[in-house]
Amino acid sequence: QVHLAESGGGSVQSGGSLTLSCAISGYTTGTYCMGWFRRAPGKAPEGVALIDSAGSLIYADSVKGRFTISEDRNKNLLTLQMNNLKPEDTAMYYCATGSYCTFNSSAYRYWGQGTQVTVSS
Length: 121
What we know:
Layout: E1 3-7, E2 10-13, E3 18-25, E4 33-39, E5 46-52, E6 57-59, E7 67-72, E8 77-82, E9 91-98, E10 110-111, E11 115-120
Parallel strand pairs: 2-11
Antiparallel strand pairs: 1-3, 3-8, 4-5, 4-9, 5-6, 7-8, 9-10, 9-11
């Protein structure tokens, strides 16, 4: 059983930065994908950034050049560095893990509880 726990959310002004962390236990082996998703009120879940077991990175167009996903396997930690935040980045952010990389959230079996990010203009 994989357990994920996010932290690091908060409130910042437009242009600010936040770093989200996802602590992972019951770590998956073999081929996998880990990712960050977000969900704003009244909107469908949106894939933000993905990293697979080979280290390949995939970003949503809306965050390219501003967000960086990374994984520390020694610490069992997934991180999302968010720079130049915009009000439209406001959402609940979740980390998730699945067997392959896709921005389709239904493909991910394990999810954290989420951490709120609020960006004011």
